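Hi W.,

Here's what went into the run:
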Amino acid sequence: MDASTIDELYRRYGPVVLRRARAILGDEEAAQDVLQEVFVRVVEQRGSFRGEASPMTWIYRITTNLCLNRLRDGRRRAAILEERAKEMDPEVGAVGAGTGGTTPSTAEARLTLEAILQRVPEELWAIAVYYHVDHMTHAEIAQIMGVSRRTIGYRLEEFRRLALAAAAPLEVVR
Amino acid sequence: MRNEACLSDLFLDRWRVGELSELEMARGEAHVRQCLVCARRKRELDRQALEFDVQLRLPRRAPRRAWRTALGLLAAAAAASFAVVLVPAALPSPTDAPGVRTKGGPSFSVIARRADGTIHPVLPGDVLAPGDAIRFEVRTEEPRIVAVLGIDAAGVVTPYVDEVAIEAEGPQLLPGAIRLDETLGPERIVALFCDEPLGRTRLLAIGAEALRQARGDPSRELRLDAPGCAQSSILIRKEATP
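Here's what came out:
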């Protein structure tokens, strides 16, 4: 992979990596670090990258994994979650709660990421990001994670259940 | 608000880089025609990608060019800090709505850096102030000779960018920056995309004739008589800052 190819890939996929890393991490410096890390992976794993039917999907997967690894280390966890919860679009959840859909309500959304880190297995972290940050369909998440759509449906439902459970103790009863 | 039928960011990103099949693209186009949320999101992602690309190509130093002497130079540091957002203007018709790119045609965008350091795309009718700096971004589908003229309310035609050869390599930021002078009122900035160079003298003459036909008012519809050239223009208004 020569310099011009790397440059072209960086221009093409760099903005996607940076946007998603910012959205997931909520931290510019960390997002810039992830941007660099992703392209180190691109160079290191160029065979795998080029073999993908959709290199963009590969980029999404690597970016998500690197971001979640950073979240996993826990050092910035509390601050990041608080900021992300505030930034989540309050309208995102308006469909799901009342209509039987799988998108969480506003109250759920505020606790979504915290619930993920505290209560759900790691594979749900990525699903939650793909669903709530990237607004992917079940089919797209299934493809990017290499599992069936049915599995995604189950896991999103599990996520929803856990998020609701996480929200419950914070409700004020008068 | 997005719903289940809406296009995901992944879909829009794959669309931008050309990974979609024809069938998928047709589905996407049909959806954004009737979904304002996805149309807006697509524009936003496209804009972010352009911004990222332009930032990569920002010069670290503004090259010294003779044509800028009348309007001054931005410091190299200012040029390097020019983070931009692009809104292309459609060609070839000068009356086409801005912000729409004609498939296959060249596009022209103006980016302003205000005295307070804020940077923003210039839209038709935007008010700028003397001392604000502007830069130009073009995109062509084939190699062209590009020139940019400023035609102001005092009847002065200024070559902002002398003719430069542009390759068909996607959006390209033209070298250098222009600091707007003290002339207030409307000013039309015109980009010409030509197959052959016209020469500075002829360019100035063409600009002056177009202004004469517009009765000296650059805010009127104004088209340069430059055969073989596509052109695009944007009208701004210069007002003194309070």
